[in-house]
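Morning!

This is the sequence you dropped in the shared folder:
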Amino acid sequence: MARRPARRRPTPAERAKAASDARKTVARDRRATHDYVIEDRYEAGLVLTGTEVKALRMGRASLTEAWIEVDRRGEAWLQGAHIPEYLQGTWNNHAPRRRRKLLLHRSQLERLAQRVSAKGYTIVPLELYFLRGRAKLEIALARGKQVWDKRQALREAQDEREAARALAAANRRRG
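The structure's back. Tokens below.
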């Protein structure tokens, strides 16, 4: 019978590398999935200044009133996102609500621009996070929900919760 080699434990350096490579969420727009039907998701890079990155690393940002716009030149811009001024910043601090350029592949930009020109579609930011030390923005091609769609989604979520509760209660009584 052959012995399997013992699994070695990761070194502190390997653990630190894995932790730095992990996805660290800074801000999320939770209402976006409630207000829109999400069709396609994309990961975009952001062009930021130094003080914006430092403010993001402190975990301070808001995407609640943000939207994405594709201009005539085919560039995507994040509008209305709030990254507050860096507290230790000097006179060269950034403007909190300035527009920020998104970095996407040309084919992705063309596909997004084509779909947004169709009626009812928009591009919404979902989540702002750090991945391997770089700020990334998850964006989605979305279609707006009607009020009855939102009510239906809430009803379905409530039904699922009630079913899970009933199942858990039945398992507790039996076990």
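Headline: The chain has two domains: 23-144, 146-175.

More detail when I'm at my desk.
O.
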